[in-house]
Design a protein that fits this description.
TPR repeat; Serine Threonine Protein Phosphatase 5, Tetratricopeptide repeat; 114 residues; single chain; disordered N terminus; mainly alpha
Length: 114
């Protein structure tokens, strides 16, 4: 890495770019479809870059509102950064699309009740 090249650690840079800016800067292109944004989201999630993962999953569901997998992993990323309300919203979208696996997480994340 050269001295002037930005690091992957967005915290050390002082400012955090969104997923699109990161991709343009480092790869020179951005996805043009829901699946591309979904796969970018998974990549950012695996790197524990949850803010960019959430940004990517939001773009994915904008292009394909029926992609319950994007809602599912977006919810997990929201939980990781303590955005519980956003996680609950994403999980509700996922279960509304008949994804049965998210019922458990939705119950676990939901406050109150026995």
């Amino acid at each position: 890495m050269s001295a002037g090249e930005p690091t992957d650690d967005s915290k050390s840079a002082g400012k955090q770019s969104n997923a699109e800016e990161w991709l343009l800067l480092r790869i020179g292109a951005v996805p043009r479809n829901s699946l591309g944004w979904f796969r970018c989201g998974v990549g950012f999630y695996n790197k524990k870059d949850y803010a960019r993962a959430i940004d990517s999953f939001e773009k994915s569901v904008e292009l394909d509102p029926l992609n319950y997998n994007a809602y599912q992993i977006m919810a997990r990323a929201c939980i990781a950064v303590n955005r519980k309300d956003d996680a609950i919203s994403a999980l509700k979208q996922s279960v509304a699309l008949d994804n049965p696996s998210d019922w458990q997480l939705l119950v676990e994340v939901r406050p109150g009740g026995h």
